[in-house]
Amino acid sequence: MKEFVFTYPTKVYFGEGAAPKALKEYLGAMGKTVMLAYGGGSIKANGIYEELKAVLEEGGKEVVDFSGIMSNPTYAKVQEGAALVKDKQVDFILAAGGGSVIDCCKVISAQAKLQEDIWEMEYSSYKFPTEGIPMGAVVTASGTGAEMNAGAVITCEDKNWKGPIVGMPARFAVLDPAYTASVPRMQVLSGAFDTLSHAMETYLGNSDQDNVSDDVALAIMKNTVVNMRRLLKDINDMEARGNLMWDSAMAENGILKVGRLTDFQAHQMEHQLGAYTDCNHGQGLAVIHPAYYRHILKDAEGKFERFGKEVFGVETAQEGVEALAEFIKECGLPTKLTELKSKVEITPEILRKVADTSNIIKCGPRELGRDEIYEILMECM
Ligand code: NZQ
Ligand code: ZN
């Protein structure tokens, strides 16, 4: 194990009625004005908006709406939110949505307390926020685990860049599987694949032998696959949705990462693919993972063999990677870049740009060169 300091800032409320329970407990600490932040309107269609707003208003809060947070949230949207927080003197931010809404709010929280531009601060001065407007996260679509960490993934459209910005973590997170009931089937499965990816990417980072997080990561992978298969039989299986919700939080709340290094090379490629195409995150990962793993198979043979045995019940490293590819097909997730919904046509020229701007991970099974990243992406066409 490498040295680490571990502390946990987010209180989690899981299960039926978790949202009113959490809000009522926090009303006293919220101040007067609460910004209710959400995406393109799904929370209005499914009644979550009304439920949250009613508890806040009954608690005497002035509610300021901040709507229209898009999937793959942009830096411009972060700045719009931070300006609204300052203008309305917001005391508390309540983010209700998937990873996009929660990520956007974590950075708004920090930016609203800063005089300087947060991207410049983090990427030019290498300084990170230490305070923010307090916030809570109500998860309505699970998969990213964004509700239990401080990191956010934001798209800077003018820079053709999608990448991490450290924001502030939520004080509390609400995980009520019933809140995900209306999520479209493909998003449910894409989100769950993102969870699987997080556990795989962590597991493939360099760790010492018999590191407990390898065992926990494999357990999360196994559980994610089992529950995704339950959803393939019945997408409305709420017990499976609940299991996946906690898998999602567990995969990205940092517990798997303490005392070890992580890979996350597939994520780096996908994020830059997202910067150029605005594709769905989980679906982009589904396309990239098998091609990437075929390239690094020999560099982590022991780990892939164990992965294959424990997650898919096959014998060899290669069978493990091919079982993953088959599972992606079984889920009906995209297997080619051309199947992704993209704002531009995905061409070799675009993929060259993605390859030339992706972060390169140094602590995965092998450090890739840019030409190899391009090759991997081209194999996904
Ligand atoms: O915008 P609305 O109308 O809410 O619709 C959303 C959106 O279209 C819809 N949705 C959410 N809850 C719903 C619902 N539809 C019906 N009923 C509900 N209850 O789902 C769609 C996708 O939402 P989004 O938040 O974009 O998806 P996801 O949770 O997959 O988040 C993706 C973002 O998270 C980042 C990704 O890069 C991407 O930007 N990630 C964040 C991470 C983190 N902070 O730890 C880690 C991940 O690796 C990831 O990079
Ligand atoms: Zn992810």
From TrEMBL:
Top-rank taxon, per record: Bacteria
Pfam families to which the protein is assigned, alphabetical: ADH_Fe_C, Fe-ADH
Cellular component annotations (GO), alphabetically ordered: cytosol
Alphabetic keyword roster: Oxidoreductase
InterPro entries registered for this protein in UniProt: ADH_Fe/GldA, ADH_Fe_C, ADH_Fe_CS, BDH-like
Domain Fe-containing alcohol dehydrogenase-like C-terminal per the UniProt entry, residue ranges: 191-379
Endpoints of the signal sequence: none
CDD domains: BDH
Gene Ontology molecular function, alphabetical: alcohol dehydrogenase (NADP+) activity; butanol dehydrogenase (NAD+) activity; metal ion binding; methylglyoxal reductase (NADPH) (acetol producing) activity
Span of domain Alcohol dehydrogenase iron-type/glycerol dehydrogenase GldA: 9-177
Protein's name according to its UniProt entry: Iron-containing alcohol dehydrogenase
Species, as recorded: Candidatus Blautia pullistercoris
Organismal lineage: Bacteria, Bacillati, Bacillota, Clostridia, Lachnospirales
